[in-house]
Amino acid sequence: MQNNSKRFFEVQKFEIRWLAVTVAILEPLSIFAVLYMFLNNGYFPLIIILTLLPAILFRIIINIKFETYIDENEIRYRWVPLQRTFYRIPLDSIITTEIIKFKKLRYGSRTHNKYGHTHIVKGNEGLLINMKNNLKIMIGTQKSEELIRALN
Questions:
Q1: Angle CA(69)–CA(57)–CA(65) in degrees, nearest 5?
Q2: Closest C-alpha to 75, from 97, 44, 104, 101
């Protein structure tokens, strides 16, 4: 049964200026290569791939976001559009939670020796969840104060 009363909700997106600049440089170069191949009787499917692939990848990457929900029963999170369903952590399966500050962790979804499975989009704060099954999950947040209030 879906519980719609949310105590906490956060959507985070990557800051991808570097990617936009890279694509802005590479896309004209690929178009130039395509035109060159086309004018020299190049291979047409390769032309389409070289033109469309960077644009499609860029669209997918700029739409990636990380969603976190907390309600009375569980913590849910997912990477959109990579995951359709939420990963769910029932609150009764959690031993402790704490907001931590970290240094030099890579962004994305990774496994870390100290913090367990980490999900970080930006920043240096996260919710560290210690579960009864000895798993650790760390969810990065930009709203640490609001998240603490939602868990109390």
A1: 10
A2: 97
Put simply, whether the predicted model's pTM sits higher than 0.90 gets the answer no
What pairs with residue 67 in β-bridges?
11, 78
If phi > 0 it is left, if psi is from -120 to 50 it is alpha, else beta; for residue 104 that is left
Place of tokens 């191949």: 37
State the Cα–Cα distance between residues 100 and 144, nearest whole angstrom: 9
Query: In sequence order, what are the beta bridge partners of 125?
Result: 101
Question: Which regions of 59-146 does DSSP assign to beta strands (E)?
Answer: 65-71, 74-80, 87-90, 94-101, 108-112, 116-120, 125-131, 136-140
Q: Tell whether the model's pLDDT for residue 1 goes beyond 50.
A: no
pLDDT digits 0-9 by tens, 70-83: 999 999 999 998 88
CA distance 26 to 20: 10
Rounded CA separation 80/112 (Å): 22
Give, as one character, the DSSP assignment of residue 133: T
- Tokens for 10, please give them: 């956060």
